[in-house]
Amino acid sequence: MKSRLPVADLEAHARQRREAGKQATERRLERERGLARRAADWLGEDLIEFIEFRGQMTIVTKLARSNALLTWLRDELEFDMMVDLTAVDYMKLEGDYPERFGLVYHLANTVREARLRVRTYVAEEDPRAPTASNVYKAANWAEREVYDMFGLEFDDHSNLIRILLPLEYSGHPLRKDYPLRGRGERDNFPVIRRDREDEA
Amino acid sequence: MGLEDLLGEGFLATRVKDLLAWGRKNSLWPMPFGTACCAIEMMSTLSSRYDMSRFGAEVVRFSPRQADLLIVGGRVTLKMMPVLQRIWLQMPEPKWSISMGACASCGGVFDTYTMIQGVDQFIPVDVYIPGCPPRPENLIDAVRLIQDQISSHEIQQVIDEQTGVPSLPRLKHMQALRAERARLAGTPAIEIQEPA
Fold first, then answer.
1. For the segment B126-161, what is each residue's pLDDT rounded down to a tens digit?
2. Distance, in angstroms, between A7 CA and closest chain B CA?
3. Count of domains observed in chain A
4. N or C: which end of chain A has fewer CB within 10 A?
5. ipTM
6. Which of A162, A194, A195, A199 has the highest number of chain B CBs within 10 A, making it the mutation to test binding with B?
């Protein structure tokens, strides 16, 4: 279909749209920065780090206050949605990390259109964390996945069993010290042969 | 041939087991176990362009209890292997199996902790097809090889000693398999209720 507008007008229109998009991004960033700052101030001494990287805010908190922070974010700052919960194994990653495992919560504020990441560290010697499923119901299955893949255990979780791998699996494959080809789990099957089927 | 001369036109002397094999090899009922792109080639082989029904194997059965040829096409994961073993046990004797393509035969490029490196480690395989995925002609060739095996009686069917008929799948197989799997993995066995 041919456009009725002259080419110069089309270009001006596109420029306007780009400009408006940039301004909206700026406004969203400002909003997210403000919310994240408020959360950081609320944490006070328990704040480990406040990170802004490429327009994304991350609050790093101590494990003991993580659930209190999530509850406060949900009730006071209207972060009403848990987008995802996952974990990171920092074992072979360069850099200074206080503990081996990182537990990451991705939150969204659907009222004011803002996103926030909350991170906390879990020790290798005692890989336990309080469950967030009583704050956000969406955390229930995500925590099962973290348990399945990283072996982190969640206190007071209602049903902490494997979610992806078979129930009889042993090992946690997303840990960095887990070999790519497994520890022989894939060979743990009985063999069916023609001549001894009745014994199987 | 003496007997045919005596009976005249229209008679053919053969052995019962050859007659059965002749019937079986020309009416194979495949059970497709397609988990990846090999299944696409399998569909292509079965449909009109390549037309596997020319070789008598067009009645694809999605119930293992009605099939006598298992075609494993595609990757088999750790979680899928018990299912595959169960399907194999559910198929009535006599039965044959084809491992189609690189993944089913040796794991292909997927050498990770979740992938079975060749289904022949855990179930019997009669014919392997190379390729990634194999051409429909390769699958037809494999079916012809199975037919040769049937007519030459290479695969003996398992006869149940108690009843004297070809052995049928029984639930005790499945439960014994489950217990064995747990023993090998070193984890407690998971109980499955027997269907009423």
1. 899 998 999 999 999 999 888 888 888 776 665 556
2. 47
3. 1
4. N
5. 0.73
6. A194
